[in-house]
Amino acid sequence: MTDTTAAIEVEDIRKSYGDLRAVDGVSFSVAEGEFFGILGPNGAGKTTTLEIIEGLREPDSGHVRLLGENPFPRNPGLLPRIGVQLQASAFFEKLTAREQLETFAALYGVDGERAREMLDLVGLAEKADTREEKLSGGQRQRLSIACALVHDPDILFLDEPTAALDPQARRNLWDVLRAIQERGKTIVYTTHYLDEAEILCDRVAIMDHGRVLALDPPASLIRGLDAPTRVSLERGTLGIDDARVLAGADDAHEDEQSLTITTRTPAPLLSALAERGTLDGLQVRTATLEDVFLSLTGREYRA
Ligand SMILES: Nc1ncnc2c1ncn2[C@@H]1O[C@H](COP(=O)(O)OP(=O)(O)OP(=O)(O)O)[C@@H](O)[C@H]1O
Question: ATP-binding: present as a keyword of the record (predicted)?
Answer without folding.
Answer: yes
